[in-house]
Write a structure and sequence with these properties.
- By secondary structure, the protein is mostly helical.
- It is built from 13 helices and no strands.
- Helix 3 runs antiparallel to helix 9, helix 5 (about 85-95) packs parallel to helix 8 (about 140-165) and helix 5 runs antiparallel to helix 12.
- The longest helix has 27 residues, at about 140-165.
- The radius of gyration is 18 Å and the shape is globular.
- The protein starts with a helix and ends in a 6-residue tail after the last helix.
Length: about 280
């Protein structure tokens, strides 16, 4: 069950960018609905599991609010990037959050990175640079989209760090519900100020996005994470950019060049190396 949850969670999240493009609301408004529709269901699951928000300490609530703010910034940057670069690039570069977490761990430990960690960092930044160079050759708009996807990865790193701290004293479903609600409340005024279309005429992509990416995707990943080694988690995460690239090719004819494949392979290899180097007992 845990392995099935791990795979299905990544598959559900991977098709999120496709649904964002299919929605007839603005990119930020789509992010608002993704969170706003899922938050009550997440809270209901947490409530049925026996968790009550009144039991949270003030420090934990502050952490969840900070997590929600970082998640809002992540969703805004990532959803805009989905319209300004290839789906595969947007997903792959946003997944560099795991590498940023590894770098944060190195800084926190106050020691030089291992050979594997150093190689992973070089591969990731080299691959990201190659992807962005290819995008810039195709269109400056693609280049801006790649930069926004990288920025989203940075905000997602902050979100994960806050959630890791909050999860020490909060149940996963209710914690995710609170962070989602905070993020939705922050995204809505930004979408309105930007003049985006907020009310959809077709609810189907938004409902599917909320149920798949937020409820099923994030929920199943939260359930599966404690059951596997970092290497297995890392390999499973690679499903996302691969499936997103396939979706972009099928739905929008976004063919990848040979250099795109090289850059993507470099970033994927970096993600695997980071988790290999992070295994318990590895020097």
């Amino acid at each position: 069950m845990a392995f099935a949850a791990l795979v299905l969670g990544n598959v559900a999240i991977a098709f999120g960018p496709l649904l964002v493009r299919l929605a007839d609301t603005g990119p930020m408004a789509t992010g608002f609905w993704r969170l706003a529709l899922a938050a009550p269901l997440l809270a209901l699951i947490g409530w049925r599991a026996g968790f009550r928000p009144a039991g949270l300490s003030r420090a934990t609530l502050i952490l969840l609010c900070l997590a929600g703010a970082a998640f809002a910034a992540d969703i805004i940057a990532w959803h805009i990037s989905i319209f300004q670069t290839k789906l595969g690039n947007a997903t792959l570069l946003a997944n560099c959050a795991s590498l940023l977490l590894a770098i944060y761990g190195i800084i926190l430990a106050r020691r030089l990175p291992s050979k594997a960690q150093a190689l992973a960092i070089l591969l990731a930044f080299g691959g990201a640079a190659l992807l962005m160079m290819q995008s810039f050759d195709l269109s400056p708009r693609h280049f801006r989209g790649d930069l926004l996807a990288l920025l989203a990865g940075g905000f997602y790193t902050l979100y994960l760090l806050a959630m890791m701290r909050a999860r020490a004293s909060a149940e996963s479903w209710m914690a995710l519900a609170i962070a989602s609600a905070v993020a939705a409340a922050l995204i809505l005024p930004v979408a309105l100020a930007a003049g985006e279309k907020v009310m959809p005429t077709n609810w189907t992509p938004l409902i599917i996005l909320a149920l798949s990416s937020q409820l099923v995707g994030q929920g199943l990943l939260t359930f599966a994470l404690p059951h596997f080694s970092p290497l297995v988690i890392g390999l499973a995460l690679l499903l996302q950019p691969a499936l997103s690239a396939a979706a972009g090719w099928i739905a929008f004819d976004e063919a990848m060049t040979a250099m795109d494949f090289v850059g993507a392979a470099m970033v994927m290899a970096a993600l695997v190396l980071v988790r290999l180097a992070d295994r318990p007992g590895r020097p």
